[in-house]
């Protein structure tokens, strides 16, 4: 085994990130269940009232942004650690420095 591989296998920061990745995967799955519940409630609300619920839309957007942030972290596209280590997202996701912004 080469020295580079041995070094990489012993690198504590990589193992630490792996544990964070596992934790964020669990958090994102919980967030997906909550988001699915919001989708159902929003549909029922629209069905019964003819309009959507503004508070549910904002909550759905923030959960969607949170899931996006988690996926960016899991794919190594971002080093930003989402909630509970970072702030809870508000609004739409903001591009990270590694993302390509088309415009």
Low-confidence stretches: none
- Give the amount of beta strand, in percent: under 5%
Report the biggest beta sheet as strand number plus sense, adding barrel if it closes.
none
The gyration radius over C-alpha positions equals 18 Å
Mean of all residue-level pLDDT scores: 89
Query: What's the helical proportion of residues?
Result: 55-70%
The number of distinct helices, counting runs of at least 4 residues, comes to 3
What overall form do the CA principal axes indicate?
Answer: elongated
Number of domains: 1
Please identify the structural class as seen in this structure: mainly alpha
- Encode the helix/strand succession as letters: HHH
Number of strands: 0
**Head-to-tail CA distance between termini:** 47 Å
